Amino acid sequence: MSKRKIDETMTQARIVRAKRTKGAKAQSAGATPVKRAKPEVSKAGDKKTEPKESREDLVVFAFRLTEAERDLIHRAAGPAKASRYVRSLAVAAARGDEAGVKEILRGSKPAV
Fold first, then answer.
1. What is the 3-state secondary structure (H, E, C) of 11-53?
2. Distance separating alpha carbons of residues 56 and 61, to the nearest angstrom
3. Which pLDDT value is given to residue 112?
4. What is the pTM of this model?
5. How far apart, in whole angstroms, are the C-alpha atoms of residue 108 and residue 36?
6. Who has the most CB within 10 Å: 8, 34, 57, 100?
């Protein structure tokens, strides 16, 4: 294939992609999105899942940690509970709830 033919093919491909993109943008700008029905059967089997109650509006509060600090928090909180552990501990400390902080610390695994 000659260089000119390759250039023409590439140009045509760009035009097709541009049309697809413009069409998608036009659809999303003016049209309402189609909502798909969620399956009422859970992955576990035949049990029907009930809709979750709406949660309060949450925001993100982030801070930086070293890997060692992160690992300590994960060990103290247990598997898959680090975010909840840090959140509850920080909120209890911010409220001045000394008993709550002590209770959270007593309930955690040793970090060492």
1. HHHHHHHHHHHHHHHHHHHHCCCCCCCCCCECCCCCCECCCCC
2. 15
3. 46
4. 0.47
5. 42
6. 100
